[in-house]
Design brief:
Layout lengths: L3 H20 L8 E4 L3 H4 L5 E5 L4 E10 L10 E9 L5 E3 L11 E9 L16 E10 H10 L4 H14 L3 H14 L3 E4 L8 E6 H6 L1 E7 L2
Parallel strand pairs: 3-6
Antiparallel strand pairs: 1-2, 2-3, 4-5, 4-9, 6-7, 7-10, 8-9
């Protein structure tokens, strides 16, 4: 069963999709787009299929990613999922390294919106509440190559995920490793044990994502 936080994120993601369909995808450099509505296709990591003559892309597959509960925070990082647990505690690959995903691009989103309670763990807002969204369109392959260039291929990412799941159980240990990885490779890992799915993520800085981006900008109403 999905956590309340993830259910709220899903509600907000639908509102963000409305905003993007109205204010981003119909504008240049996008020439045409199709919103994927079939659940079976969405589970393959497909939210939008788009084409852009300017970017030289035909029928590119986008998976939209927005950490909705960080609305208005303008955080300098983005989390990429390496693994999570199913209801039976089986560990499976997260969306970044899941070979079954058909995602070609991630649209990473940092929203600003009017919300009733910014201190809420999972603030809710609608498409009409959104004031702007900063975005980065980045090729999935380029993220994998960036991590690989720092010595982390998919096998080592999976090993790091298993290590965190088996050995990192307190904030102090996690913070020690965070500092170590930041100094050594410029990104770090995090496990979130207060969620039922207990995801392990690799945290990449926005400045590094911008360097490998296909497109970046700000979408306004």
């Amino acid at each position: 069963m999905a956590s309340p936080l993830r259910r709220t994120d899903n509600r907000v993601e639908k509102e963000i999709a409305k905003f993007l369909d109205k204010n981003l995808y119909p504008t240049l450099p996008f020439n045409r787009f199709t919103r994927i509505v079939e659940k079976s296709e969405q589970l393959k990591g497909k939210d939008v299929v788009f084409s852009s003559e300017f970017l030289g892309i035909s029928n590119g597959v986008i998976d939209e990613k927005c950490t909705a509960h960080y609305v208005n925070k303008n955080i300098p990082t983005f989390a990429f999922e390496l693994s999570f647990l199913l209801d039976d505690n089986t560990e499976v690959n997260g969306w970044l390294i899941d070979e079954n995903k058909e995602t070609e691009y991630y649209l990473l989103l940092w929203p600003k919106a009017k919300v009733e309670d910014e201190s809420a763990t999972a603030p809710y807002f609608t498409s009409n509440d959104i004031e702007q969204i900063d975005y980065i369109l980045v090729k999935r392959e380029n993220i994998i190559l960036f991590l690989h260039s720092k010595g982390f291929d998919k096998n080592r990412l999976a090993s790091a995920s298993r290590y965190y799941r088996d050995n990192v159980h307190d904030i102090q240990h996690q913070n020690q490793l965070k500092q170590k990885y930041k100094e050594k490779v410029g990104f770090y890992f995090m496990i979130t044990r207060n969620l039922p799915e207990t995801p392990v993520n690799v945290i990449i800085y926005r400045k590094d994502l911008e360097k490998i981006a296909t497109l970046k900008g700000t979408c306004l109403p």
